[in-house]
Amino acid sequence: MNKQTTLKMMTRTLSFPLAVMLALTACGDGESREVQDAADVGVETADAADGNQSDGAKTIESGNANQPGTPIQPGKAIEPGTPIQPGKAIEPGKAIQPGTPIRPGEPITLGQGNEPVKLEIADTLLFDYDKAELKPEAAEMLDEVVKALADLKGASIEIQGHTDDRGSEEYNQELSNKRAQAVLEYLETADLPNVTFQAVGYGKTQPVESNDTEAGRSRNRRVDLVIDPV
Asked: What range(s) does the OmpA-like domain occupy (predicted)?
């Protein structure tokens, strides 16, 4: 065997282990990469799990679920207040009796004492329908009122005009005002000493009967004289 042949054989012998080593090294690098990748994934998974656990913990903390409440401690006893002393008894006022309808030809009686009296005059005795001017025959009725008032030492009289519920509130209010004023002007001509008059219209706000019937509406169309002797 010559020197050249021996050298080639040695080269082949050395080349085979080197190739094997390079191949093993390459495989080792690949496995290392796979292991490293798996490790990275594991770290990310663990981080995510930790994050979920943290979020869950925050949720539980913020909700304070199922935590026992603070017991209510007994407060200070309520001290008894100052007893309310009985006040002065309310004195009964002068009660106004229901109106006494005035009828033509019958004497007007105002009663005795200082109790207020209400006289009720149907509108048909004083006015035409839906009018505020006194009828000529109204004078006879009102003159009877003047005679009764003349027997008093003095009185304060409120002349009240009333209507039924037909028509608008504004119209009935105006009509009742005008009718009360017309009666006042007539009575003032009698020049009664120590007697004062006031005219007030109440419209349809103070019915004495139901407005569902003609008889009730007729009763509600009236003039009341509330006489308070002094």
From this structure: 114-230
Interatomic CA distance for residues 54 and 42, integer angstroms: 18
Helices (H) and strands (E) in the chain, counts: 4, 5
Phi-psi region of 64 (alpha: psi -120 to 50; beta: other; left: phi over 0): left
CB atoms within 10 A of CB 11: 9
Q: What distance in Å separates the CA atoms of residue 106 and residue 109, rounded to the nearest whole number? A: 9
Of 154, 159, 160, 150, the C-alpha closest to 229 is 154
What tokens were used for 217?
């509406």
Name every residue whose Cβ is closer than 8 Å to that of residue 144 and which is 6 or more positions away in sequence. Answer: 102, 107, 108
Class of domain 114-220: alpha beta
Q: Is 36 exposed, middle or buried (0-12, 13-18, 19+ CB in 10 A)?
A: exposed
Whole-structure pTM value: 0.57
pLDDT digits (tens, 9 = 90+) for 23-57: 444 444 444 444 344 344 443 444 444 444 444 44
User: 213 to each of 44, 93, 143, how far by Cα in Å?
Assistant: 93, 34, 32
CA dihedral 165, 166, 168, 169 (to 10 degrees): -20
CA atoms within 13 A on the CB side of 145: 33
